[in-house]
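User: Okay, second chain of the day. Same drill as before: sequence in, structure tokens out.
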Amino acid sequence: MGKSCCQTPDTDPSAHNNPRWRLILWIALIANAGMFVVEIVAGITADSRTLQADALDFFGDAANYAISLGVASMALAWRAKAALFKAATMLGFGLWVIGYAIYGLAIGSNPDPKTMGAIGTLALIVNVIVALLLFRYRTRRREQQCRCAGHLWQR
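Assistant: Same drill. Structure tokens below.
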């Protein structure tokens, strides 16, 4: 019996080992790791919990790209486990940010707005560049999901 459009497609190992895709993941990893360092230093210097929380997000993104590079050529089950691990770490980061924000509210702080604005603008630029680089490789998956969703609506 043939597969429906919503079943998991056979994996093409070459799709996960595309040298250009891997290069873009390396660029994204380096950009995010660099922004982690910039934002954590600026956040501490400017007494900004917002910059520190965003630095943690950059760290999480860099770790996600590193994990993606590590499991790219592995079986689907390993990639799924890596995705669950990434989700769990992001939940942990989110809980830490909430707790740290409450702590900042309780003790009070006076962050430097100029530093926050400059570093926030830099962070936006880096995020947009990385998103544009990665967009090409996300489109194919989105089209597959849309076709599958369309098939479900027709039933």
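The helical segments are 13-16, 19-45, 49-71, 76-107, 113-154.

User: Thanks, on to the next one.
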